[in-house]
Amino acid sequence: MNKSFKHLDTITALFVAVLLISNVVSTKIVAFGPLTFDGGTILFPLSYIFGDILTEVYGYQRSRKVIWLGFIAALLMSLTFMIVGALPPAIDWANQAAYEQILGQIPRIVIGSLIAYFAGGFSNSFTLAKLKVLTNGRLLWLRTIGSTLVGQVVDTVLFVVIAFAGVEGFPPSLLWTLIVSNYLFKCGVEILFTPITYWITGWLKQQEQEDYYDHTTNFNPFQFRQRSI
Asked: Is the pTM of this model over 0.85?
């Protein structure tokens, strides 16, 4: 029978919330010292930290389910924004232009965001799970940072290129600035949060009595059958 956990639902909810909030605030490009990035970059790295914790404690298969839940939630949010934006506004509601400016969904940005999240999330989880087996559970910092370096480069490059490459008024220099700034900031957050990640994973392993190793896991992201415990 399937094993039940006390905190898996909470982590799943936080993961999805971080993902959705990050997507909404990504509509603003911000300057942070010498770095330039979209607003979602401030919060989005936490989704990778949650992803690391999920895979480290509960294993790739449960992490795979959470990644899919995030993907479906982000898709539903984007479709809802599009539908509501397309509906005619009430006669006395004068904020249609503001709505479209902030929440209007540009198809290539939506597609870029979803593809980047999907590829980056699974790259991160796969890398961490494999490194855990290879290191026999040692060097957690190597697994969390190493998986983030892989997942974030996939996520960042795919999103920026799909969403902005070739857009009028978006020069190649800004494209590369966004990629480098996003990547450095996201990986920096992961490194900075490493002590907290250590504490949370240790606490969860003790609370849940779970420390899964993906020795025989099918890493196909489209494999949905759950293992029995």
From this structure: yes
